[in-house]
Every structure is written in structure tokens, then in C-alpha cells.
Specification:
This protein has 2 domains: 223 residues, Alpha-beta prism (UDP-n-acetylglucosamine1-carboxyvinyl-transferase, Chain), CATH 3.65.10; 212 residues, Alpha-beta prism (UDP-n-acetylglucosamine1-carboxyvinyl-transferase, Chain). The protein has 12 helices and 24 strands. Strand 16 and strand 17 form a beta hairpin. The structure holds shikimate-3-phosphate.
Length: 441
């Protein structure tokens, strides 16, 4: 297991190419395997999480190949997955596990899902409970991996009211519903990222999204659509771009640019928040690619003030709270993050790991069950650093604390950094290209 040290840096500058979006990459392989024919995928994220999804689909009989700079997927068509005794190792990936559970639940397939230590602790009942309603049989424990699912060839169309706003839950149910003879409906309390809906629509499915009177959202998919084989181009991941962007904002004399970033409004809560805090961020050159909005983003050194981030924004920046917490240490005043209980169910309990890490370097933090408060030290305060942080198999915790090391007086060492490869391959090299001082130790 490797460790990386991060030391004081100045003048971060240049253009940075950010790898493909993780959420869209998983979906391109999974939905690509359900179209009738061959598709090509450009800019697929070649991270461990996404490769685990590709390998699992290959085990289920899908032909997937890496070409020179693209990937090809030969879709089996909806309802054409068969067989039993499959073991699918989803590694560290919650998205891969939960989405593929939906695909298996809606197919004539029996498969056991396994994963690494972190994934094996994460809650799965949120998907197995609704999938059971479609007729899938869940064998063994229902809440933690390993979980065995016996799917049904013709799943029942369901209407499911989800207690949480989760794109993984929504997508899992929609994927099962693809092979159902009727309409599948999900109601979620606030709208979570809609990449599954957009991609299904792009390939030709009928899917609708409505806001209801109580401000919850209803998504309905017509079963057995014909999904046409169209090529896809994947935009850069805004959740990965967040690390160099926040680094440029907190590091003196810095200005960087990232291109072709996914700016789907259900993903850009962090950017909205940073702008409200006073960050110099410009978003421009907006265009649509394969059903998603993309844009270029520049960010430069900024003076930040603490704000309250409302619960209503949580779903649109759920993966970005660790790196927002790093920016918040530099702000004047406190930053209050409300309605973030879901952070407790990520690769680690991120409220806890962020608080513990920041307290080690003398930042005052407070937590409740569903909120996180950080007392900013202001832009000029000297933060000593000189601590070691364990990633606990959480890629975003690892990258966040490495970004913090760029402004501390002494280095921050992050232990067990291999996990960064689950979402951002070549993170260290790319950060160093813009002038960061990260070193493998
Ligand atoms: C994801 C949804 C989010 C997010 C995860 C990716 C997706 O999880 O945290 O990194 O691709 O659907 P939840 O749906 O559990 O909020």
C-alpha cells in the first residue's frame, strides 16, 4: 500500500485534463450492454471502479473491448441475460454494485455480489428492498455484501417511494424495470443525478420526470424500450475536477483551467457553493454532448467566506463535501453543511473522517447526525500540518487531505492512497503537472 506526502505549493497553473465522469462511465457500460448492437464509448473513465463494472458485465456474457482510445460494447438487448452461479466482484464500487443488482434483478440470472472491506460495510437494503418488490429473490443477508440475487426474466412493474434521494437506488430500480412489461415509477424526495434517465432517453427509451405538489419528484419509465446503438462521449468528472479547482482557490497565485466538464445541474452544487463563498470560478463554452451539458471551468486564488449550505443542495454535491470542507478551513467564519446524513454511508462515514482529520491539524469542527460545521481559520492563518491521515479505503478522503497539504506549513502524509485509483487515475501526476508538490513515499 502506497502513501503520498503533500507539501506547501504556490502558483498552481495550466490546463488540466480530467478523466471521464465515473457515474456516466458505469452507466455507459451497463446501459450499453442492453442496447441492440455495438456502441463505441469515448473517454471512458479507466478507474478501478469502472473496470470492476466492465469485468462483471463480461462475466455476465457481454462482449466489451478496449480499442486504441475508445471502448466498444456489444449490447445483448434487453432481457437477454441468462445463467447462474456468477460471482461479481465489485471491489470498492457502490455504484457498480447497486446498479448491477438492478440489472440482475430484471434478468433470468442468479449472481452473488462481493466487494472489498469498505463496500462490504455499506448498506444495500436500500436497493434490495425495492428490487424484491419486482419479484427478485434476495438470498443471504439483505443489507451487506455478499448478497446473492435471483432475478426474474419478467420483473413486475413497481411504483416505489424512496425514503432517500439516491441516484443509485433510482437507477437500480430503473434498470430492473427495463425488462418489465409495464411502467416503473420511482418517487424521490429531491431529484438526484439523472444520468441514467438522460442516457436511456438518448438511446430511445420513454422516460418522464415530474415535480409533484410536495416538491418530491416522480420518474416513470416505459418497460421494454428499444434501445438504439449510438456512440457515446463521456465528459470530464466534476467530482474529480473539484480537487484541482479547490486547490487553485486555496493556493496563492494560482489559476487553472479544466475543459469539457460535466455541468449537469444535478452535479454542480459544489461550484454554486464555492461561488457563493466568494471563489473566482468561471464556467463557459457550454454545449451538449451525448445528452449531457459540458463546459470549461477556470478557477483562481480566492478569499472565501463561510456560508450555510442548505439541505436542498446536498444531492447535487454529495461527493464534494470532503473537498468543500478543505476549502472551508480557509474561509472567514464558519461553514455549515446541512442535511448531509448520507455522507455517513459512503466509502467511509465522511462526516466522521473529515472531522477527525481536520481536528488533527487544529481545525475546530462540530458534527450532528446530519450536519457538519467547520470553523474557518481565514486565508492568512498558518496551519501547521505535519500529520498522517489514513485513507480508510476512501478515495475522496485521500485526495481531499492531499489538497489540504498544499497550504499547510509542514507536509501532510496520506496513508493507503492506492484507493485514489477507484475514481481518479494519475491524480498525483496531474496535480504535479499544475505545480502541486505531491510525492510518493
Ligand atoms: C452515484 C450516486 C451517488 C454518489 C456516488 C455515485 C451514481 O450515490 O455518491 O458516488 O453514480 O449514481 P447515492 O446515489 O447513494 O447518493
Amino acid at each position: 500500500m502506497n502513501s503520498i506526502s503533500s507539501s506547501k505549493s504556490i502558483n498552481l497553473s495550466g490546463n488540466l485534463s480530467i478523466p471521464g465522469d465515473k457515474s456516466i462511465s458505469h452507466r455507459s457500460l451497463i446501459i450499453g450492454s442492453l442496447v441492440s448492437g455495438r456502441i463505441e464509448i469515448n473517454n471512458l473513465l479507466e478507474s478501478e471502479d469502472v473496470i470492476a463494472t466492465a469485468e462483471a458485465l463480461k462475466i455476465l456474457g457481454v462482449k466489451i473491448n478496449k480499442l486504441n482510445d475508445k471502448w466498444e460494447v456489444f449490447g445483448n438487448g434487453i432481457g437477454n441475460f441468462f445463467g447462474s452461479n456468477y460471482t461479481l466482484n465489485m471491489g470498492n464500487s457502490g455504484t457498480g454494485a447497486r446498479l448491477l443488482m438492478g440489472l440482475v434483478a430484471g434478468s433470468d440470472v442468479e449472481a452473488t455480489f462481493i466487494g472489498d472491506e469498505s463496500l462490504s460495510k455499506r448498506p444495500m437494503k436500500r436497493v434490495t428492498a425495492p428490487l424484491k418488490k419486482t419479484g427478485a429473490i434476495i438470498l443471504g443477508q439483505a443489507d451487506n455484501l455478499p448478497i446473492k440475487i435471483r432475478g426474474s426474466k419478467i420483473p413486475l412493474p413497481i411504483k416505489y417511494q424512496s425514503p432517500i434521494s439516491s441516484a443509485q437506488v433510482k437507477s437500480s430500480i430503473l434498470l430492473a424495470g427495463l425488462s418489465s412489461l409495464g411502467n416503473t415509477t420511482i418517487i424521490e424526495p429531491s431529484l438526484s443525478r439523472d444520468h441514467t434517465e438522460r442516457m436511456l432517453k438518448f438511446f430511445g427509451a420513454n422516460i418522464s420526470t415530474y415535480e409533484l405538489n410536495d416538491m418530491s419528484w416522480e420518474i416513470t419509465l416505459e418497460g421494454i424500450p428499444e434501445l438504439k446503438p449510438l456512440n457515446l462521449s463521456i465528459p470530464a468528472d466534476p467530482s474529480s475536477a473539484a480537487f484541482p479547482i479547490v486547490s487553485a482557490i486555496i493556493t496563492p497565485n494560482s489559476k487553472i483551467k479544466v475543459e469539457n466538464v460535466c455541468v449537469n445541474e444535478l452535479r454542480t452544487g459544489l461550484y454554486k457553493t464555492l461561488i457563493e463563498m466568494g471563489a473566482n470560478i468561471q464556467i463557459f463554452n457550454k454545449k451538449e454532448i451525448s445528452g449531457e451539458m459540458v463546459a470549461d471551468i477556470t478557477a483562481s486564488s480566492s478569499s472565501l467566506k463561510g456560508i450555510t449550505v442548505p439541505k436542498s443542495r446536498a444531492a447535487s454535491m454529495i461527493d464534494e463535501y470532503p473537498i468543500l470542507s478543505i476549502a472551508a478551513t480557509r474561509a472567514i467564519g464558519k461553514t455549515v453543511m446541512e442535511g448531509v446524513e448520507e455522507l455517513r454511508y459512503k466509502e467511509t462515514d465522511r462526516i466522521k473522517t473529515v472531522c477527525e482529520g481536520l481536528q488533527k491539524i487544529g481545525i475546530v469542527t462540530r458534527e450532528t447526525k446530519d450536519s457538519l460545521i467547520i470553523e474557518g481559520k481565514g486565508p492568512k492563518a498558518k496551519i501547521i500540518g505535519n500529520v498522517e491521515i489514513d485513507s480508510n479505503l476512501d478515495h475522496r478522503i485521500a485526495m481531499s487531505f492531499l489538497c489540504l497539504g498544499l497550504i499547510t506549513e509542514k507536509a501532510i502524509i496520506v496513508r493507503n492512497t492506492d484507493t485514489i485509483n477507484s475514481s481518479f487515475p494519475f491524480f498525483m501526476q496531474k496535480m504535479n503537472e499544475i505545480g502541486a508538490n505531491l510525492n510518493l513515499i
